[in-house]
Amino acid sequence: MSVANEPGTEVAVQAVEAAVDGLARVKDAVAMVVYGQERVVEESLVTLLAGGHGLLVGVPGLAKTRLVETLGVVLGLSQKRVQFTPDLMPSDVLGSEVLDEAADGRRAFRFIRGPVFAQLLMADEINRASPRTQAALLQAMQERKVTVAGEDHDLPRPFHVLATQNPVEQEGTYPLPEAQLDRFLLQIDVDYPSEAAERRMVLVTTGGTEATAPAIADPRLLDQWQRLVRRLPIGDQVVDAILKLVRAARPGSGALPDLDRLLAWGAGPRASQALALAVRAKALLDGRIAPSLDDVRALAGPVMRHRIAPSFAARAEGIDADELIRRLLAHAL
Known about the structure:
By secondary structure, the protein is α/β, with parallel strands linked by helices.
């Protein structure tokens, strides 16, 4: 399927070219501050272009928080940060009602907005808060609104959550509920930087001045890019590959001889939706007008690794979610 065969092609192509140029400048600006994490930056931008939320997973000290702050500055988004701790309460995130008394003695409740009322919410170390507080974000992430004392309060547009998470094996962490994990468009695994990137980081960050990223975009422009992503064509071959992959990642699918023994539960339809959006966003970020099967291969892990669960037998054999996805990719593509 090609945009060249559709009405209004010239406008569409011009819009794509303008977006590609703007996104290239965004990536360059982020690279001024975040070193050696090109894949992580790309997957984070894919998440935002697709209009979703991202979960960055890695050990402390890998610039996850710095990346989120930088993305907020470069994209011109109003941002708030919440440091998740075991004693954090839902009202500390959503807001609460207080009783005000006027000069004439009349009393009325007034809603004080919490930090969730931002265009970019950084949920730092989200898995160090209690499950109750983690769950407070569910409605906000799905419906773009919060309900407090029976009243609905709309969140700003755009609204994105970029959460950081430490590995669940570390002390003081709580596993995220499966329902909340499914709200994240991508799980972005953050690895240690290369030696060259770490050398540059050490020299730059311990000198007299540190680089700062300029603002390149604004919420209006980001909204235009997000709308453009949804307008990009996606070929039947890519759609078929997405459906075959996601549907294979379910117990009883028969995609692999021992899948039912290795898979506790699989990916739901939200994974298909997320992958269809993510591959479009990656195509635009790479300067292409339509996604390819290579985009499906590149994003299958980030989209699905938090939506499937290896069984106890699989974990005992050293088979994790990424290994299962690799095997399913070999079957589906």
